[in-house]
């Protein structure tokens, strides 16, 4: 009986809370993004980019956005730290994946990591926000170029896709077979600028998707 009332109380009064994992190669800008999110959406500003050092453990940020709580987990991207990424997969509602748009030598490495994420069993039905960061740099590749480069990973991961669409910075790829469905948004970003439109657009897309259809994580019940 108690659990019934508790469930009802939770449903009526508690704000939804979503966990979001921030992944990407070392140096892509994950922590810079996390700090920009704090600056943009909370009253306490995040660290300035000059005070950010490479991540070894876990950085956490929490915000309230349009009535929902978002908890961001930022992990280190160095090769030897990537083996712990998947320990978090079962506990997240969404993934943000960041690419350094100027690091041409590592696009292949970044694509390979993204491919593993998209294809991972524990991340089925989880929305993925793919940020092409550092768009302020003169040697950054264009969003068109990066979109077609990364589109191949997305399509490969959904080999049985029945339908895909692409407009400007966004790409929603879906499949009639729910086992291979994927919901991914491609978005430009300048993480060092906490007021960038890319940041706003990306977070809005994420929250809209979570509100519509977030997966249920068992140990939350
Ligand atoms: N120009 C420019 N530099 C950026 C941007 N975002 C991040 N950087 C720089 O990229 C470098 C790496 O940023 P981090 O946020 O530490 O990268 P990370 O992905 O957290 O790296 P790890 O913690 O090692 O996995 C820093 O020197 C940042 O200032 C951006 O939008 N533009
Ligand atoms: Mg970091």
TrEMBL record:
Gene3D superfamilies cross-referenced by the UniProt entry: P-loop containing nucleotide triphosphate hydrolases (3.40.50.300)
Any GO BP: intracellular protein transport
PROSITE patterns linked to this entry: ARF (PS51417)
Keyword GTP-binding: yes
Binding site for GTP: 24-31, 77, 133-136
Residues that bind Mg(2+): 31, 55
GO cellular component: Golgi apparatus
MF-aspect GO terms: GTP binding; GTPase activity; metal ion binding
Keywords assigned: GTP-binding, Magnesium, Metal-binding, Nucleotide-binding
PANTHER family hit by this protein: ADP-RIBOSYLATION FACTOR-RELATED PROTEIN 1 (PTHR45909:SF1)
Protein name: ARF-like protein
Organism placement in taxonomy: Eukaryota, Amoebozoa, Evosea, Eumycetozoa, Dictyostelia
């Amino acid at each position: 009986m108690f659990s019934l009332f508790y469930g009802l109380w939770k449903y009526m009064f508690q704000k939804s809370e979503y966990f979001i994992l921030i992944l990407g190669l070392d140096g892509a800008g994950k922590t810079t993004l996390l700090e920009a999110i704090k600056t943009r959406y909370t009253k306490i500003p995040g660290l300035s980019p000059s005070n950010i050092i490479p991540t070894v453990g876990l950085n956490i940020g929490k915000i309230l956005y349009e009535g929902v709580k978002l908890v961001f987990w930022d992990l280190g991207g160095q090769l030897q730290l990537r083996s712990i990424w998947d320990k978090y997969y079962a506990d997240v509602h969404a993934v943000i994946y960041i690419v350094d748009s100027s690091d041409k030598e590592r696009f292949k490495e970044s694509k390979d990591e993204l491919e593993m994420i998209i294809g991972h069993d524990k991340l089925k039905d989880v929305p993925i926000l793919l940020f092409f960061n550092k768009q302020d740099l003169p040697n950054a590749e264009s969003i068109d170029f990066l979109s077609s480069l990364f589109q191949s990973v997305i399509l490969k991961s959904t080999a049985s896709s029945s339908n895909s669409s692409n407009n400007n910075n966004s790409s929603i790829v879906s499949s009639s077979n729910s086992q291979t469905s994927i919901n991914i948004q491609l978005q430009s970003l300048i993480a060092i600028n906490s007021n960038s439109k890319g940041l706003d657009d990306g977070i809005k897309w994420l929250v809209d998707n979570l509100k519509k259809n977030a997966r249920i994580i068992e140990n939350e019940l």
